[in-house]
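haha ok so turns out i had the wrong file open the whole time. this is the CORRECT one, sorry everyone. sequence first:
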Amino acid sequence: MTTNEKKQLMAAACIVRMGVIKGTHAAKAGHPGGSLSAADLFAYLYEKELRVDPQNPKWEERDRFVLSKGHTAPGLYAALALRGFFPEEDLLTLRHIGSHLQGHPNMNLTPGVDMSTGSLGQGISAAAGMALAAKYQGKDCRVYALLGDGELQEGQVWEAFMFAHHYRLDNLCVIIDNNGLQIDGSVEKVMSPYPIPEKLRAFGFEVAEIDGHDFDQMEAAFAKAKSTRDVPFAIVMKTVKGKDVSYMENQAGWHGKAPNDEEYELAMKELSAHLAEVEGM
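then structure:
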């Protein structure tokens, strides 16, 4: 990855984070914490990794992305807007009546959304089905699914992992956002999913462990995923919940609440300063 490419991704991630804050503030509701922890991934996927066409969102040969942790829709929407699937100003309609940007992704309303999600555990099951269908149809498209670490507490997730290995879904890439927190606190204390990489390997996955805020590590992991044959691939990302908004970082309370006016101003000031710093590099 060139220095300029990395700079562009860093700027994109910052813009995604700003979109998360704008949307949740306008909605007076939503899930900023996990959207911010996955913002670097959202930026990488839509600016570099995924084969998609914003002018033709239903293009049959596109790669598919399933946001299994559907509550972090604000991050996905911000990335889709940045990629050109719909105008950025639509982010201000998040969760409003009549908006195509609801609290959880809706494939029937939102351009670029490949699967309706929200009930945890169901998204990865759908993604595995998509990957199997692509195999049967002889398509070379890839399927990506993002799960939260708290979502791993759902038994359905492990059934889907078993399915993925059984059918040798090497066109499936599972990504775990391991920010360590869920709505009730530490995932380790609520119902520990650890050790995540070892469990995934036991279910037949090839696994990469990365810093989810490091684009070089991300690039290497996705390259390895594409070269892996006969088994599904998983990327376990260690991340910071609420990343780059000082008062939200590592705070479980920001899992599912929106910033007020004062908090909005502070977050946007911090993110604007970070964007200016990146652009000046």
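The mean pLDDT is 98.
again sry for the mixup
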